[in-house]
Amino acid sequence: MNTSEVAKLLGVSTSTIQRWVKQLELPMERNERGHYHFSNEDIEVLKKIHEQLQNGTLIQEITPLKEKKVPRKGAIKIVEDNQELEKLNEKVSKLEIELHSKADSVVSYQLLQHRREIEELQIQVNELTKQLDQFQKLLSKVNLPSQIDDPIVFDSSKGKRKKKNIVSSLLGFL
Hints:
Distance between the termini: 112 Å
Strand order of the largest sheet: 1-2
Strand content: under 5%
């Protein structure tokens, strides 16, 4: 029987049955999909647990029967045919090769992009160097000493000077 059938038989929910199995660590069989599969003996054990709980026994006080050790059946399908396993290994190997090839092509493309960018930067650096040379030539022409160096003279005859008082003349050096 499956979990829902046993739950209907005992008059409890399916989650209650699952909780009893887990909390009491009952060794119940499972099918390929991982669902519980209960034999007549398992149902008798669950009936006894149900009676004990209805008589007021706490679930922690119930001692589970751990005499039955059944290997758990999982959802993993055992591959008995070596040909299927070999085919699967071949597919995985092909996928790995394709993945490495794709990664190599991506890296190659990135390297080409970087190379183009570097070439463009080199062209810009060359142009800037030429412009800098032109500016230095212009600057050297502008900074040539003038033919006649005339001294700068300020005309002091225009305008009247104010007379300084004694205190400002004494403290004028500050």
